Amino acid sequence: GNFTSLSALALDDAGDILFKAQISSGNAPFAFFRYRQSGTGTAQIDVVAYNGEVIPPPDGSTFASQSVTEPTTPPIIMPVPAFSAFSMANDGRVTFQVLLSQGLTAIYQQTGGATPVRVAIEGGSAPSSTGGTYALSGLASLRSLDNGSTFFASYLSGGAAYFGYFLGTPGNLQSLLSTADALPAPSRMSLAAAPPKAAGHFVGFAA
């Protein structure tokens, strides 16, 4: 296919550029790409993720390929991106939130030319300290950290907490803070509305 529109999203310390593109005459209408510098003076463009991408088993998920119909005469079907949030660490590692074809929201991590790896999925089990399952829909607070970890916020369902901040790598997540955490009496946890901040491998938030 051909690029029809480009939008730069992030830049890391090595000069890598994360950008999104709308594509015509291709297999996917929207995609994320990473422009990478190299020591030889040449450059490379990696595909990070795209609408309709099928993740091989054991994951087996498919990134949604959405569209909306414009009320024109005749009606025009317009593709829309499946991705709602993104972050790139200084090693080029990208974390993103995506809608899956079955209607669930998930968070994935991708590096180099590798296939994206799932970090968390809506309805998936949260760490035992909070219990319950992730409810990621509507949230877009995530960061890709320089140590390979992903930081994200999520509402929770069916556990001791209803909201929490989480950190970790695929298959190894921990709760940093949640509404189930014990505080000295008679204190109560109320997470602040200000979004959390992350840089390098540090995370900061108000509560």
Provide tags for this entry.
207 residues; mainly beta; five-stranded antiparallel sheet; four-stranded antiparallel sheet; 17 strands
Helix and strand topology:
Blueprint: E1 2-11, E2 17-24, E3 30-37, E4 43-50, E5 66-70, E6 76-80, E7 83-88, E8 94-99, E9 105-110, E10 117-121, E11 133-135, E12 142-144, E13 150-157, E14 163-169, E15 172-178, E16 197-199, E17 202-204
Antiparallel strand pairs: 1-2, 2-3, 3-4, 5-6, 7-8, 8-9, 9-10, 11-13, 12-13, 13-14, 14-15, 16-17
Overview of the molecule:
With 207 residues, the protein is mainly beta. The strands form five sheets. Strands 11, 12, 13, 14 and 15 form a five-stranded antiparallel beta sheet that branches. The protein has a four-stranded antiparallel beta sheet with strand order 1-2-3-4, with no helix packed on it. It has no helices and 17 strands. 0% of the residues lie in helices and 49% in strands. The N and C termini lie far apart (47 Å). Strand 8 and strand 9 form a beta hairpin.
Low-confidence stretches: none
| Overall morphology | globular
- Secondary structure class reads mainly beta
Overall pLDDT metric: 84
Total helices: the number is 0
Largest sheet: 5 strands, antiparallel
The residue fraction in helices comes out at under 10%
Q: Assembly state here?
A: single chain
Terminal CA distance: 47 Å
